[in-house]
Specification:
The protein has about 700 residues and is of the alpha/beta class. Helices cover about 30% and strands about 20% of the residues. A six-stranded mixed sheet has the order 9-16-15-12-10-11, sandwiched between helices. A four-stranded antiparallel sheet has the order 20-19-24-25. The chain has a three-stranded parallel sheet with strand order 3-5-8.
Length: about 700
């Protein structure tokens, strides 16, 4: 069904509704209209890294972990599986007349906000700190969710529009103030690219942006989204965000006024209950029947595109046996392997010879944690493999001892025996081991969405520190005192500095993010050398004492690799391998609105591996502020030992423009330098990896 056909059918159906019926359909939990044969429909479903909150589904690595793959083709396949499992569930829900929350085909994912500040607790839900990477992976995800068939396989939704990335504690009333330069260079490109690539939904943010609530924003919704980008899909509020318009932003005085200003700004659907007041707004002449009708037609266009009203629904042959099936588990394992970033490997300590390792101690609060595999916005897998489980499975000839060693943050609680802490147990295990795997980090109870509580480490899910929580730092340092061979596996969704002592002592450091249900198996296989690590950092890992701008400051100056002041601990785009790659014969050819790069890549090591080729642009003599470097191209290239291949990377000229103070994208005044290699062309990356990128001037 084409979009125009769906729109025509939506117009015909909506024309048969009364004004009250149309308004009722603008709530996320839309009631049935029995006289028209319309079933109830709940729009709220989640699928950021697997079908969420509704029983068994494949739990893939969380979004920030998927970003670390630097592999849009892989992300597209993952998203296709998510929509397959969504259809499998939906087919059964409809069969049994279950129209409850989290049962529909409208997934409110992906989160394409920019992870501008490493303290933000919801950064784990994003594709990282870079506009190009976010736009590229977000587009690949959306195309996988929505499919390319006659009907939508499922509906994706780009969120949260716009200029949203904390703080969590004040998000319902916060005003994010951003210059037009920063908006159009950093905060809006991923939305523009996903909208123009066909995403069917956009979710407004909780906060205000430059004075106006995002779900009633005349400029963002009216001028940018609907007019300039010509978006004709549906806009939904974040959950409770329209209530915030009058209760927290005090932008209107009454609920009816808040509902009216949101609807008039083309927010079609309310996640919440404020649109109940549309009836009052209509009776007070605050909204027109034409505005109500337009919103209803947009939401029903989506329902027709999903095939809800077809006599034989599309994709109805997808069976329940697809949920977390063997095939999907294999993909999940592959994704988990590609998301792991090897940050340190002193004197090639890894991989380990699993036949020669005697005793392994697995110590730390994430050694046996399911929640650290899941992240947030997760489903429930049929099988989980923690770090300790994975090591047991892979290192079958070794003796494995496991100790928690500490809690995440709370130092004064031992849930089992009443002592002040568990550090002595962790140290004892490490002291008796040949190798200690320290499974450290966080979970969604520590960093996450508006957790509602504060402690000495977090504020409503946002971190107060870039170091490990103090109790884990004590554990890690004590383990380093008694064990020479320490490997750190860091599981969290953000930047954490392990501290000088642990970072310098550890033989290897792996950033595992929240790696999905089978993440522990991927970690163990990396330790054993079953594959060569190929993940790359989608965020900057800062030193714990790095002088960051104020969390509430939305200027990009001093933020991310693009505008960082000083040096990173581990830079964006960085990641080690068990093999090595050489680049040569790089060429660039401008062709209209694209620049085509070709470069020869050779696996010069002794092991098969996947190289994540990256292209960065740098501008000289620009009339406006430009980034140090800007990622503009990526390519995953798999090569056997000794194999050589030519990688072709096409760069959209959009990413080779400079952004002026008024938000316009213009051709830079000076030259454009392109850097091609396996990392960012900054000094820290060059020093850590011992090589430099190839430079080409356009």
């Amino acid at each position: 069904m084409t979009k125009s056909q769906a729109r025509a059918k939506a117009k015909e159906l909506v024309a048969q509704m009364t004004a009250e019926e149309k308004m009722s359909q603008l709530l996320y939990n839309s009631p049935a209209i029995e006289r028209l044969g319309i079933k109830e429909y709940n729009w709220w479903n989640e699928g950021a890294h697997g079908v969420a909150r509704a029983g068994t589904a494949t739990v893939f690595p969380h979004t920030i972990a998927m970003a670390a793959t630097f592999n849009p083709e892989l992300i597209n396949v993952i998203a296709d599986v998510i929509s397959t499992e969504g259809r499998a569930k939906y087919n059964q829900h409809v069969k049994y007349n279950d129209y409850d929350i989290f049962k529909g085909l409208t997934f409110w994912a992906p989160n394409i906000n920019i992870f501008r500040d490493p303290r933000w607790g919801r950064g784990q839900e994003t594709f990282g700190e870079d506009p190009y990477l976010t736009a590229t992976l977000g587009t690949a995800f959306i195309k996988g969710i929505q499919g390319d068939g006659e009907f939508l396989k499922a509906s994706a939704c780009s969120k949260h529009f716009a200029v949203h990335s904390g703080p969590e504690a004040t998000r319902h009333g916060f005003d994010a103030k951003a210059s037009l330069h920063d908006m159009f260079e950093t905060y809006l490109p991923a939305f523009e690219k996903t909208v123009k690539s066909g995403v069917t939904g956009v979710m407004g943010a909780y906060n205000r942006t430059n004075g106006e609530p995002c779900c009633a924003h005349s400029y963002l919704l009216g001028e940018i989204l609907r007019k300039q980008w010509e978006f004709d899909g549906y806009v939904v509020s974040d959950c409770g965000a329209i209530k915030d318009i009058y209760s927290d932003h005090h932008f209107t005085e009454t609920k009816a006024e808040a509902a009216a200003v949101a609807l008039k700004s083309t927010c079609d659907l309310n996640c919440g209950e404020t649109y109940v007041a549309l009836v009052d707004a209509y009776e007070q002449d605050l909204i027109t029947d034409e505005e109500i009708t337009a919103a209803a037609e947009r939401v029903y266009t989506i329902r027709f595109l999903l095939g809800e009203f077809e006599e034989v629904r599309p994709y109805s042959d997808i069976g329940y046996d697809k949920l977390d099936c063997k095939e999907h588990k294999e993909l999940n394992k592959k994704a988990a392997e590609q998301c792991l970033v090897l940050l340190k490997n002193k004197e090639a300590f890894l991989p380990l010879n699993k036949e020669k390792v005697g005793r392994i101690a697995v110590v730390g609060p994430n050694s046996q944690s399911y929640t650290a595999l899941e992240g947030n916005y997760n489903g429930y897998a049929s099988e989980y493999v923690t770090v300790a489980d994975g090591i047991r499975r892979v290192f079958t000839d070794s003796e494995i001892i496991v100790e928690r060693g500490s809690n995440y943050c709370d130092e004064a609680t031992n849930h089992w025996s009443g002592f002040q802490n568990m550090i002595s147990d962790g140290v004892a295990a490490a002291a008796s081991a040949d190798i200690t795997v320290l499974a450290l980090g966080l979970d969604c109870s520590v960093e996450g969405e508006d957790t509602g509580f504060d402690n000495d480490y977090t504020a409503c899910g946002d971190k107060k520190s870039l170091y490990l929580p103090k109790t884990q730092q004590k554990l890690a340092e004590a383990v380093c005192d008694v064990c020479d061979n320490v490997v750190v596996v860091l599981m969290c969704g953000s930047s954490i500095d392990l501290g000088d002592k642990v970072t310098s002592h550890a033989k290897a450091i792996i950033h595992a993010w929240y790696p999905g249900a089978l993440g522990g198996l991927a970690v163990a296989n990396l330790l054993a050398g079953s594959f060569s690590p190929c993940g790359r950092l989608p965020v900057t890992i800062y030193r714990g004492d790095h002088d960051l701008p104020d969390f509430e400051d939305y200027s990009m100056l001093g933020r991310t690799y693009r505008y960082i002041n000083g040096e990173a601990l581990f830079p964006f785009g960085y990641g080690l391998s068990y093999t090595s790659f050489a680049y040569d014969n790089a060429k660039a050819q401008a062709d209209g609105e694209t620049v085509k790069i070709s470069v020869d890549i050779t696996n010069t090591g002794a092991m098969k591996g996947i190289e994540k080729a990256q292209v960065y642009a740098s501008f000289t003599d620009s009339r406006t502020v430009t980034p140090h470097f800007q990622l503009c191209g990526i390519k995953a290239v798999e090569l056997d030992a000794g194999e050589k291949a030519t990688a072709e990377i096409e760069i959209d000229a959009y990413w080779l423009k400079a952004v002026t103070d008024d938000g316009a994208r213009v051709t830079p005044d000076g030259k454009i330098a392109l850097y091609i290699g396996g990392h960012q062309p900054d000094g820290v990356s060059n020093a850590l990896l011992g090589n430099e990128c190839i430079k080409i001037e356009l």
